[in-house]
């Protein structure tokens, strides 16, 4: 049923909730409700973090609203805490789907003492050591070559792990993307490349990024299958990504999945007036009508297990409460001081850094 290089995105569920392909048996109302809750959690996480940004409690954030089905579907298609994930800076919902606690993500955004990166990484560039969730980078596509290297190591070591690397459509215009794709293809590395095609690379539409009809066809050049999926259909994303991940895990080499979706918010807080500067309100409204969360609710109603307005409101209130508690706990832990500049890099600090540390200590009033 799942074939590479389809002309249209693979879809299991229409926007009105009607199945267009037979639903696999595992998609019970219970599983769909779990997926729905994770997607709703991601949506509300966005809303609350934007509030923190406006309050000056963090300094950078990139919304994933509208892309929840792509990220949760992928998270539930792979083996969390077993496979390695090289994400990009819009993958907070992917992290939540893998089980990364909201507290971990919030701590990173705030740069508090509870941040695994100890405040060194740019806000909203998540990582989680216990979940094999590698720290994101702002440099577009820079995660792709090392992800290919990670997959090559897995092949040489003979593990049954795979590497999953995600990126936006704009990343496919970068040389790093092509280098990583080529190396993985040439070496038969167990790497799953996932393009979260939200159609806008900041202010540049995909039609100005490439002359190819879409992204997944580029897989042909690197000797791997390319799959095309409706990224707002969580069932389709989960099925296609699981199929591709297990194909990769079986030793067949890498694969590329393109998830066609849309970011309804801005690229980041740096372009908050996106509708005024580079896209139209009509376009955004059209995609708001394709809301992936609403699609799951429509499907549950079709299956006879609807989510009422009261139930939905209760879930949102509970999510907000948890986020508020996590924010206060992270802030209460305080923030790293100047000493961390000299830690965690060298086992034996070089003399010139010892001198700089002593100089700073003296400037700080002789603090130990």
UniProtKB/TrEMBL annotation:
It is an enzyme of class 1 (oxidoreductase). It comes from the Bacteria. The keyword Cell wall biogenesis/degradation does not apply. Keywords: Oxidoreductase, Thiamine pyrophosphate. Residues 38-336 form the Dehydrogenase E1 component domain. InterPro entries: Alpha-ketoacid_DH_E1_comp (IPR050771), DH_E1 (IPR001017), THDP-binding (IPR029061). GO terms for biological process: branched-chain amino acid catabolic process. Belongs to the BCKDHA family. This is 2-oxoisovalerate dehydrogenase subunit alpha. It comes from Deinococcus wulumuqiensis.
């Amino acid at each position: 049923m799942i074939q590479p290089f389809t002309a249209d995105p693979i879809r299991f569920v229409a926007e009105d909730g009607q199945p267009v392909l037979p639903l696999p048996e595992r998609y019970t109302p219970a599983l769909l409700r779990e997926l729905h809750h994770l997607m709703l959690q991601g949506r509300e996480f966005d809303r609350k973090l934007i509030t923190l940004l406006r309050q000056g409690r963090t300094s950078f954030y990139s919304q994933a609203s509208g892309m929840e089905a792509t990220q949760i579907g992928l998270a539930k298609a792979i083996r969390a805490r077993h496979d390695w994930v090289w994400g990009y800076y819009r993958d907070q919902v992917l992290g939540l789907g893998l089980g990364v606690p909201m507290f971990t993500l919030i701590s990173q955004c705030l740069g508090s003492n509870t941040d695994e990166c100890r405040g060194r990484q740019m806000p909203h560039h998540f990582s989680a050591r216990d979940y094999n969730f590698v720290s994101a980078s702002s440099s577009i596509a820079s995660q792709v070559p090392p992800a290919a290297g990670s997959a090559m190591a897995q092949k040489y070591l003979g593990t049954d792990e795979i590497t999953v690397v995600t990126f936006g459509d704009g990343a496919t215009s970068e040389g790093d993307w092509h280098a990583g794709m080529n190396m993985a293809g040439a070496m038969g590395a167990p790497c799953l490349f996932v393009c979260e095609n939200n159609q806008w690379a900041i202010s540049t539409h995909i039609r100005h990024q490439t002359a190819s009809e879409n992204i997944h066809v580029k897989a042909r050049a690197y000797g791997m299958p390319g799959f095309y999926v409706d990224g707002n259909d969580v069932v389709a994303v989960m099925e296609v990504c699981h199929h591709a991940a297990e194909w990769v895990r079986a030793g067949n080499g890498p694969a590329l999945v393109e998830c066609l979706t849309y970011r309804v918010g801005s690229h980041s807080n740096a372009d908050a007036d996106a509708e005024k500067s580079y896209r139209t309100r009509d376009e955004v409204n059209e995609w708001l009508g394709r809301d992936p969360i609403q699609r799951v609710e429509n499907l549950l109603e079709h299956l006879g297990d609807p989510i009422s307005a009261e139930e939905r409101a209760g879930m949102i209130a509970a999510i907000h409460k948890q986020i508020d508690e996590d924010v206060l706990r992270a802030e209460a832990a305080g923030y790293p001081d100047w000493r961390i500049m000299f830690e965690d890099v060298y086992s034996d600090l070089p003399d010139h850094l010892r001198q700089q540390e002593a100089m700073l200590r003296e400037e700080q009033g002789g603090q130990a």
